[in-house]
Amino acid sequence: MTEEQIDALLYITLFNIEARYEEYKREFYKKCTKDFTENNINKIERLRIWLLAKIKN
Questions:
Q1: What is the pLDDT of residues 6-29, one digit of tens each?
Q2: DSSP state string for 1-56
Q3: Residue 22: HSE in the Cβ half-sphere, 13 Å Cα cutoff
Q4: DSSP letter, residue 57
């Protein structure tokens, strides 16, 4: 994995933590602008494609 992929996975993991706890959830919702969401969906999709390619090999 590249450093960028590792960083992306660590960052995505924070979404689970922030969505789980009520005090973080409100702050997280404030971050979720259209641009923020689209950017992170694109990162997740790139990781998904990479992981699927690894599984096939």
A1: 999 988 888 777 667 777 778 888
A2: --HHHHHHHHHHHHHHHHHHSHHHHHHHHHH--HHHHHHHHHHHHHHHHHHHHHHH
A3: 0
A4: -
